Each structure stands twice: as C-alpha cells, then as structure tokens.
Amino acid sequence: MVFTRSVAPFLRTARSALQQGNSVSPLQHALRRQNGASVLNAARTYATQFERTKPHVNIGTIGHVDHGKTTLTAAITKRQAEKGFANFLDYGAIDKAPEERKRGITISTAHIEYATEARHYSHVDCPGHADYIKNMITGAANMDGAVIVVAASDGQMPQTREHLLLARQVGVQKIVVFVNKVDALEDPEMLELVEMEMRELLNTYGFEGDETPIILGSALCALDGRRPEIGVEKIDELLNAVDTWIPTPQRDLDKPFLMSVEDVFSIPGRGTVASGRVERGTLKRDQEVELVGKGDAPIKTKVTDIETFKKSCDESRAGDNSGLLLRGIKREDVKRGMVIVQPGTTKPHKEFLVSMYVLTKEEGGRHTGFHNNYRPQIFLRTADEAAALFWPDGTEDADSKMVMPGDNVEMRCVIHNPVAIENGQRFNIREGGRTVATGLVTRIIK
C-alpha cells in the first residue's frame, strides 16, 4: 500500500487519536485538525489502488427468472474468496434493492469483481424477469462472454431464449452453460435431455452448441458447502471453462474515448459520478470530456477522479467498468443512455437508416406484421427511446406495404430524443414486453 507525503500527517493524527483514547474516530479527529476535503480525498485516493496484473474480461450470468443466476454468482464469490481471489458476497449483498430481496428477483444489473489464476473478471448479474429486460440488455451489452443458467427442473424457458438472442445481438460471441439445481432432479435421462435441448438452442442462435462447455451442478450446494461433487467442484469446473472457452478480448485502446452511462449517483462533498463500461479508448484523471445525448449540445466537463470497483485508478481504458467523477456537473445533468467522450468526436442524432431482422413468432417476436410509422421502443447502448419506423424515402406504396415477421428490411428510424449514434451500431427493437427486431445503423441522416 503506497501513501504520498500529503497523507502522512493524516496518519500521524489518526494514530495520535487512538493513543489518546479519544471518543471520536481517527478519521473524524484528523478531519477536525486539517482541511477535511483534501485529507479525505487524499486518504480515499491512496488507500486502495486498482492494479492491472491480469487480463480483464467482462462476463455475466443470464437466463430465466428464478433459475439461480444470483445464487450462482454468490457461490462463485464464495469459492474464489476461499482462494484469496474475491470478497464473498451473499445473495442479499448482490440483490441490494429492498424490492429485489422482497420479491426474490434481480431487477437491476449488479457488478461483482473476482479473479482466477489466469484473469481478472467483472461479473454482471443480469435480471431474468421479463419486466426488467431493459436492464438485462444493458448488462449484456457490457459482456465479452456469458454464463447462461438453466434450471435442470425446468429446462429452457422464454427468457432463456430471449437472453440468448439479445446476447448474440449485442455482440457476445461465447457462452458457457451452467445447468443448475441438479440436486432437485433424480432422473439422469432428464439431465441428458436438458443438455441436448440447450445444445440445439445454442446452435439456433448462432453459438457453437456442439462444442460449448455445459456444466451440471448446484449453486446452492456450493453456497451451503454441501455435496462437493455437484457443488464447489462444479464451480471450479465452471470457472475453468470460462477461462478457456471465452477468449480474452482485443480492446480498442487507440480509438477516441467513449463510455456509455449506465448509472449516475452523487457523493456528498465530492460531486456527481457517472458509471458504465468503457467501449473504446483510454482516459486519464484531469482530462476534459463531453457528455453527449439527451440534448442537442454537448456538456463540457473534466474528470477529476476515476474508480474501478471502488479502487482508485490513474487511467480508465476500453473494457473497464469505471466510475468517473465529473467536475461542476449536477446529478440531474447526467442521464442513463448518454455517453462520455473525447471532445469533438461524437454527436447526437435523431434520424438514421437501419438494416434489421424482424423476429418470427417462434423466435419470440410478433405474430403479425406492421405498417409504415410503426412506433416501438429502440435500445441503443444503454439508451432506450421511443421510435418511429418508416420505409425509406421514395419507397412505392409505403403506406400500404407491410413488414412481416422473418423479413430482413431497410427502414428509416426517427427517435424522440437525440442520442449518440454511429454507423454500424447495434440496436434492439422491443414492443409489449418482447424483442421484435434487431439490427444495425447503416447511415446517419440528421
């Protein structure tokens, strides 16, 4: 642990307070004696430092509600904590919101840190409930690979299929399967059937189903320390599969910095923090940036501190899940869906051409087609906006022409609020609680 000279007086004062038996805490005592803000900042900055000693990979748990994603995440942290590679987080620590604990489901995405012998991981525990699929899309968009959790007692379910589709569309290339709750299923033939169905489903959505590792185990047994042959040993097997099957991604470090804002919060006495995954580039402390989106004009600011997993960093780089402390910015000025970028590199847009595939009923999409001026919701990075879809200008019989499930079409999209959009950017279209189309931005209009 390294401390600069500026922190040494704080430590001496803190020790003095302890030796004198003062009733106030060492931190409070020190802050009374010195400039509170500067000492607190110094102690906070140098107490914990994020060190890059292993390749960093973003993964996550996806799958149907109540199939055991959060329990598996907790079991992973417990096992890796035993090896000195993590801090153990139980189910309640991961599902932090009172509503989540009350209902027993994950609503928001939770970011957890752990490591293996080979890598450092940021793990996103995604919600499986259909009502919170918006948050799952954000979580999946941040992943380099994923673990899909399937309950042996249920097999594949609606969100199993939708999560695989969304993972594919946001660019996830490799999936590892964890068939959970095998302790609740005594028939080995049923386990074989679940595995066979999952391999077929993976192939359907463009994953390598025949080669994908499938681990059969019980996250609850691992968490409770029972039946190691299906518990803790299977957690080890799962993490080994993740290490070997999911490749270390190549990061776009040389491109201009861009981070999509996923969450915003305030730190009393310090300011507004925007957090999210860095899509490309690098950023150093005290560097100037722009906030783009949710308005026509960018907001200029400076990043005065950078954190990754509550550890201070000198630099944020592509692939990191970072929190950026923004100078002179109010919390209400920053909204989910905005991007933080190198000044002058990105602009917000409201109208663009898209190439998209419309899902069939069998794929979970619409049962019927739609006409010109169709108004769904569009998801771009962490932004979701009301949209209107039209046939491109010059299309004959545009008002009577229909788009049918299964079609690949070119359309013009107009959104309600301007969003940072680039050619080649992926998106998803949703309506009525389901994903109905997916595609790419092909040309910016305005």
Quickly list its features:
32% strand; alpha+beta; 4 domains; Elongation Factor Tu (Ef-tu), domain 3; 21 strands
Describe this structure in words.
The protein has 446 residues and is an alpha+beta fold. The protein has 4 domains: 5-47; 56-245, P-loop containing nucleotide triphosphate hydrolases (Rossmann fold); 258-341, Beta Barrel (Elongation Factor Tu (Ef-tu), domain 3); 348-444, Translation factors (Elongation Factor Tu (Ef-tu), domain 3, Beta Barrel), CATH 2.40.30.10. Helices cover 26% and strands 32% of the residues. The chain contains 11 helices and 21 strands. The chain has helices at residues 8-20, 26-33, 36-47, 69-82, 91-94, 98-103, 133-141, 158-169, 188-204, 219-224, 232-245; strands at 56-63, 110-115, 120-125, 145-151, 174-180, 214-216, 258-267, 271-280, 282-284, 288-292, 299-308, 311-313, 315-317, 321-326, 339-341, 348-358, 377-380, 383-390, 408-420, 426-431, 434-444. The protein has a 6-stranded mixed sheet with strand order 2-3-1-4-5-6, sandwiched between helices. The protein has a 6-stranded antiparallel beta barrel with strand order 7-8-14-11-10-15. α8 links the parallel β4 (145-151) and β5. The longest helix has 17 residues, at 188-204. It is flat. Residues 54-250 form the Tr-type G domain. Belongs to the TRAFAC class translation factor GTPase superfamily. Classic translation factor GTPase family. EF-Tu/EF-1A subfamily. Keywords: Elongation factor, GTP-binding, Mitochondrion, Nucleotide-binding, Protein biosynthesis, Transit peptide.
